[in-house]
Write a structure and sequence with these properties.
Length: about 150
């Protein structure tokens, strides 16, 4: 069963980041800049699914997101604990190994998943924002509306 949420539905604003919350041996990168190897950081959970393993049991499939995109992540161990803290819309801290498989595509094999703590992330890093400031977009729209000459519109 799949659960989905909008990134802004459940994410509470965070205090300013105190770095990227990773251990010294793992690099925190935006999703679009991930390269094969060890990764760690805070991401928003877009979707979670418990799926059956071929040899019995279950594994957890997450879709993690930041402002640059999404990536699939899989937890093969500790499924129940990972599932409990990774509700859609939540922000989680993950550690794992990112790789790109020729058949299965890009994914993170999760070693650690826990709820992100206040101060470990910035909401601006998780939610895509427009490149043009909202105030400027609103001003341009109002200007365009002002050019409408037909009273029926």
């Amino acid at each position: 069963m799949s659960e989905q949420a909008s990134l802004t539905d459940q994410i509470a604003p965070a205090a300013p980041a105190n770095g990227n919350g990773h251990s010294e041996t793992r690099a925190r990168l935006l999703i679009e800049k991930l390269i094969e190897g060890e990764v760690a950081g805070c991401y928003a959970v877009r979707d979670r699914q418990r799926l059956p393993r071929r040899n019995g049991g279950e594994y957890l499939r997450l879709i993690l997101a930041d402002r640059t995109g999404t990536v699939e992540a899989k937890a093969w161990d500790g499924v129940e604990e990972c599932y409990a803290c990774a509700a859609p819309g939540a922000v989680v801290y993950v550690e794992g190994t990112y790789s790109v498989h020729p058949q299965w595509g890009a994914a993170i094999k999760l070693d650690t998943v826990r709820a992100a703590e206040e101060g470990e992330y910035r909401i601006e890093d998780l939610v895509a924002m427009p490149e043009i400031p909202v105030e400027r977009l609103e001003s341009a729209l109002r200007e365009l509306i002002g050019t409408i000459q037909s009273p029926q519109l």
